[in-house]
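Dear Dr. H.,

I hope your travels went smoothly. While you were away I took the liberty of generating a structure for the chain from your last submission, since the lab meeting agenda had it listed for discussion. I wanted you to have the full record in hand beforehand rather than looking at slides cold. The sequence, exactly as received, is reproduced here:
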Amino acid sequence: MPGGANLNSRHPLRLNVGFLLHKNVGDGCNFDFNCDSVRVGDDLDVKGLQGSIHLTRTGQGLYAHGRLQAQTSLVCVRCLTSFDQQLTIELDDLFTYPPDRASDPLLSIPEDGVLDLNPLLREYLLLDIPIQPLCRQDCEGLCPVCGSDLKKTECDHPHTEVDPRLAALKALLPKL
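The corresponding predicted structure, in token form, is as follows:
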């Protein structure tokens, strides 16, 4: 069965799955996502959310399997410029129904049959954000003397002599 029932464009991650709860075990439905911008929590906005999730009826509830991609704005830890980071998540979860049997409230379907994916996707997306985001792998960062972006300008500052107490550490650095 193609396509699913998203409630509306304002809440694209809230899915009406009540019809699936009344189907036979093994029946399923695809939910396709193609959203320009989505707020996935109070602290996370993503752009270009795309992908699909297939929900399959099981004896315990609904099994979700799918892949979603989105982008979020981050700041490079080296040069402090904003850039868009691609995020990819794989869903492989069982949503329990009825909700009183669930051990995790994020993985339960409420009695009204509306599955809100926001909290779960927020967790997955936050886990995919790098700890030290870089605009590109070879980012040179900022000049330690004047603070200018080294990928845009070259500084002609004289190289300062290394503190003699740290000279042994300089020998460990690769020659640039």
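Two observations you may find useful: The CA atoms of residues 125 and 157 lie 41 Å apart. Residues 1-176 form one domain.

With kind regards,
E. W.
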